[in-house]
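sorry to bug you again but im stuck and you know this stuff better than me. what follows is a protein written twice so to speak, once as letters and once as structure tokens for the fold. mainly i need to know what kind of three dimensional shape the backbone takes. anything you notice is useful, everything is just below:
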Amino acid sequence: MYPFLRASRVFGRALTTRLSPALRPSLIAMRVWPNDLDTNAHMNNGRYLTLMDLGRFDLMTQCGLVGAVLRQRWFPIAGGVMVRFERPLHAFEKITLKSSILGWDDKWLYFRHDILTGDTRAARATTRGLFRTRGQSVPTADLLDAMNYDGAPMPPPNSVRQWVRADELMRGEDE
């Protein structure tokens, strides 16, 4: 089930968030609830990805993209994820989702998501996403303009470039 209560908290926070085109990280504190668990009594691997969606939405609100997204009828698309689980999360643990923009190219925005318990990382994911409208991708330059970003370009780091190459290889495999 989708975490509607968590989502409403993030959406509510969006109404009072100070906008920042400086691309600061998003920090969302939450707790692991019993409905997050799988049959092994730890957080389900799919739940991690759902929570990371909330981090990307929070980033979108912080940098002021929500207005442009609604006006232009842009809708977000996740284009891939690479995730590393480092330790299980159990019911009622306090966690923090830290999300940040790692960089971009002409088509994709790249994100880092860390799920932390205190200072200990439980999971890390790299994701990529874009916005679409009228059957085509919104150029990254249009997104940056919509958020009034005037900082330096942020090309994806080497780890992301290697992941993109691996993804391209995987796309060509027949087996």
User: Anything to note?
Assistant: The beta strands are 26-31, 75-85, 94-104, 109-117, 120-133, 136-137. The chain has five helices and six strands. The chain has one domain: 4-172.
